[in-house]
Amino acid sequence: MSTYFRRAFSYRNFVLLRSYALYGHDLSRIIETPINICNSDVNRVFSVPVTNFIKESRRAFAKGRKSKDEAGVSTIEVPPDVGPTIKANSISQMEAAIAALLTELNKLRTGRASPGMLDHIIVETGGVKMSLNHIAVVSVIDPKTLSVNPYDPQTLKQLENAIVSSPLGLNPRVDGDRLIAAIPPLTKEHMQAMNKLVAKSCEDARQSIRRARQKAMDAIKKLYSSLPKDDIKRLEKEVDELTKKFIKNAEDICKAKEKEISQG
Fold first, then answer.
1. Domain containing 150: what range?
2. E strands within 40-164?
3. Each residue's pLDDT tens digit, 60-118
4. φ and ψ at 48, to 5 degrees?
5. Which residue, of 49, 148, 178, 264, has the greatest Cβ tally within 10 A?
6. Coiled coil where (predicted)?
7. How many domains does the chain have?
């Protein structure tokens, strides 16, 4: 409506000036002469200079065009690609679950000697508690015998006491500046108890991997409004494939441990 009135007044000004020019009137006098606009309701007369009227009409029209141009400018925000970050976090958490599983399984004594089976033993020396692998080197002499070589021979007695006190059931003997630990054969009851611990450790690893999957899926759900549906489905599928891969890895590790226990 405002555009219509502006155009109407502009056309009126053009016709007014053109008619005065055709009939030989002095345009300079007309432009400087006020226009009397009568309001019939209140019988009052307003004087508006023609020059100002034309200038204001053109200025208002130009201002409207300018705001239209400015309104046409828009910015598009492109969401960042957070898919690789979500996958990387999932892989890190699942790898941590596998590492924790290996640590737990190494604590279990089987019929075969393994240097990692003593790593979890805590030794107190000089009023400080440390893991055995921080103060001694454990090596395999044969499939049934371990050698424990301390960095400081003065800690030999503390190492012996810690190994005897552990639930592994080992009785090492002193051989010069080292300890020799023979691995006794497993009883049937011991094998059954070890297999139960392996099954529990495997289930704990599965749960940790599934929690990592759930965290990834929760992060993906927050992207529903910013990513295409196909990208969301692809990312969910990749996380599911990672979950299956790591769960299978954990189960294979536990099966190998059970086989090792059964062989005594």
1. 112-182
2. 44-49, 122-125, 128-131, 136-142, 145-150
3. 444 344 444 454 545 444 455 677 889 999 999 999 999 999 988 887 877 788 878 88
4. -125, 120
5. 148
6. 202-252
7. 3
